[in-house]
Prior knowledge:
Layout: E1 3-11, H1 17-27, H2 38-44, E2 50-57, E3 68-76, H3 84-92, E4 101-107, H4 110-113, H5 122-130, E5 137-141, H6 150-162, E6 167-169, H7 182-200, E7 205-209, H8 217-227, E8 231-234, H9 236-239, H10 241-248, E9 257-259, E10 274-275, H11 277-288, E11 292-296, H12 306-317, E12 327-331, H13 339-346, E13 351-354, H14 356-359, H15 365-380, H16 385-389, H17 393-402
Parallel strand pairs: 4-10, 5-6, 5-13, 6-7, 7-8, 8-9, 9-11, 11-12
Antiparallel strand pairs: 1-3, 1-4, 2-3
Helix pairs in contact: 6-7, 6-15, 7-8, 10-11, 11-12, 15-17
Bound molecules: (1Z)-2-hydroxy-3-oxohex-1-EN-1-yl dihydrogen phosphate.
Amino acid sequence: MSYCIATYRIYDDKADFRKKAESIANGMTVGSWTELPQLQQENMRKHLGHVENIEVYEPQGAEPGERYADVKIAYPDINFTRDIPALLITVFGKISMDGRIRLLDIGLSENFLSAFPGPKFGIPGVRELLGVHNRPLLMSIFKSVVGYDLDGLKEQFLAQALGGVDLIKDDEILFENPLTPIERRAEICREAAEEAEKTTGKKLLYAVNLTGKTSELKATAKRAIDAGATALLFSTLAYGYDALQELSSDPDICVPIAAHPSLAGAIYPSQHYGISPALLLGKLLRAAGADLVLFPSPYGSVVMPREENLAIRYELTRDDIPLRQSFPVPSAGIHPGLVPQILTDFGTDVVVNAGGGIHGHPGGARAGGQAFLQAIDAAMNGVTLEEASLRLPELKAALDLWGGRK
Ligand code: 1AE
C-alpha cells in the first residue's frame, strides 16, 4: 500500500490528541469506522487512513493556548486521484476549518509524485537558456505599468535590459488591457531585448504576466510565446496548482514559468492556521512545475522569517526527489546592499529580484541593474561592498541610498 503522509500541528488546551487524530484519519477517509459492520470494515480497510505518530508539546506551566501536538496521518493513495487539488482536499479540505490546525507538510509517496513531471527547465534549464552557470541570476521587475502604452513599456524595458539583468518580469498586477495587450507586449519586449543584447552581449528572459480566464490560459500563453515571450509569470495561488501543472506539462508551452506568491499571505502567516510556506510555496509549486518561485525575503519590505525562507529553499532544491530543482527568488524590497546576505542564505543558485531597488536607483534603472551585478560580483569574490564601491559609482550610489555595506 502506498500513502501520502500529512503532518499537522494542532493546538488545543485539553483535547485527547490521539482521539482527535483518529477522528481525522477516519473522517477524512472512510468516514465512521467503528460503526461499520465487520464485513464492510474488511472491504474498507484499504481506504482507511491511520495515525502514524503523535508528539504532544505541553511544557510545564504552559499558558492557555500553548499546548499543541504534531500529528502525522497516512492517507492511502488509492483514495485520491494523482493531482494536487485531490491531495489537498483529502488531507486539508474540511479539517482546515475545524479549529486551530495547521498543515505543516505532506510526505508525497513515490507513486503520487510519479504523476508530476515537475519544472520543465528548473535551475539547470534556466541557466542553460541564459548561458550563465556560475553566479546568482538577477531579475528586474517592471514597475509603473498600469496606464502605460507600448512605447512607455519599451522604454522601461530597455533601461532595465541595458543594466545587464538576466530576467525581466511583468508586474503581477498588469492584466489584459487595450494599451499593452499580452502579444504586443511580448513582441515589443522581444525587440527591445534584441536591441539591448547588441550593447550588453547578454541574453535575457522576459516573463509576461499570464492572466485571464482559466479556460483561456493555455491558448493565451501560446500566443504570447509565438509573439516573443521567453518566460511566463503566473500567480498560481489565485488559479490553483492544477492550472500551473496544466501549463508546465504542456509540450507546446516551452518557456520557464515563474510562480508569483500573490495571495500566499492569506494562507501561511498564522502559527495556528493555514499551510506552512515550505509546503505552499516550496514543495507543491515545484511539483506543479514552477521553474522559479518568488516569495517574500527576510530582509526587505514584505518579510517572512528566515527559517521559513530556508525551508522553502530546501523544498525547491532538495535532491532526493526525481524532479528538476526550482530557483528560489526571495523578493520584495531587495536592494544591492542585501546581496551578500542573500548569497550567505541561499548560495549561488538563487535569483536576486528587485523592482524598486532597480528603478529607484539615483542613476536610473540601467545603473540600478549595474549596481546589483557589481554587488553580486563583489560578494562572489569575497570583496566587501564597501571596498568594491570605492571603484564602482553605481554600487556606491545604491549603498549611499539604501545602506548595507557588508
Ligand atoms: C514577493 C513578491 C515581490 C514582487 O512581486 C514585487 O513586485 C516586488 O517589488 P519590489 O522589489 O519590492 O519593488
